[in-house]
Amino acid sequence: MLPCRSRGLLRVVITLFTSPLFGALTSATSLVNVTVDDTFGNSEENLQITYQPDGSWSQGVDCTNCEAHLDTTKVHSGTWHDTTYFSDNPPSSPLSASLTFNGVAIYVYCIVTRASTDPFGNSDMTFYLDGNQVGTFVQPPNGDPTYQYSVPVYVNEAIPSGKHTFTLVNGRAGEQTALALLDYIVFS
Ligand SMILES: *[C@@H]1O[C@H](CO)[C@@H](O)[C@H](O)[C@H]1NC(C)=O
User: Fold this and answer.
1) How far apart are the C-alpha atoms of 58 and 50, rounded to whole Å?
2) Residue 171 above 80 pLDDT?
3) Could you tell me if the CB of 77 is within 6 A of ligand 1?
């Protein structure tokens, strides 16, 4: 038999663990990260990144006319998507990659270079959440031809719970030619 005071404490502990408040606290801390590959998507969640307009993004590995040749051991699943915004021949509609997901945080990973030529390593991406502009990643070339892998070009850890559509747009009207190399997206 436990002393009376211990039983009282035990009851408090049990009440705490079974209370809705405790349930809310544990579900808030048990976030799971889901990775969506640029090419393979996420098969468990049946998710894919969609690219617009048709034919404007290439599979980096297979691309014969792309100038970015990457170390496939350093990219997620050995794949990436490549697109270039040409300032002298801008596309009639935005070069976009979109993902619809159910979550509270998103992390977008690209491969980035600051090469001056072959490829012209100008990064100029704009990010949208549910149609609203929420960020940019702008980094001009500086002559460094190396590639940086898994660069988090957009991170948002304060998204209201629920279903959302994220969109990356490469290049901006009136600005320089811009390269985007999308590797994968993680959401929580
Ligand atoms: C999810 O991944 C991000 C970026 O890698 C990390 O900062 C975060 O802590 C992870 N969250 C969980 C719940 O594992």
Assistant:
1) 12
2) yes
3) no
Q: Does a cis peptide bond (omega within 30 degrees of 0) precede residue 119?
A: yes
Exposure on the CB side of residue 179, measured as CA atoms within 13 A: 25
User: Within a 13 Å sphere around the CA of 174, how many CA atoms are in the beta-carbon half?
Assistant: 0
Number of helices and strands (H, E) in the chain? 2, 11
> What is the per-residue pLDDT across 5-27, written as a single tens digit (0 to 9) for each?
555 544 544 444 555 555 555 55
For ligand 1, the distance from its centroid to the CA atom of residue 94, given in whole angstroms, is 30
The contacts of residue 173 (CB under 8 Å, 6+ apart) are 90
Is the Cβ–Cβ distance between 112 and 151 less than 8 Å? Answer: yes
Q: Is the CB of 146 under 6 A from ligand 1?
A: no
H or E, element range at 165: strand 163-170
Instruction: Assign 64 to helix, strand or coil.
Output: coil
What is the value of pTM for the model shown?
A: 0.86
Residue in this structure with the two tokens 């090419």, named with its chain if needed: 39
Question: If you compute the radius of gyration of the chain from its CA atoms, what whole number of angstroms results?
Answer: 22
Ligand 1 centroid to Cα of residue 27, in Å, is 15
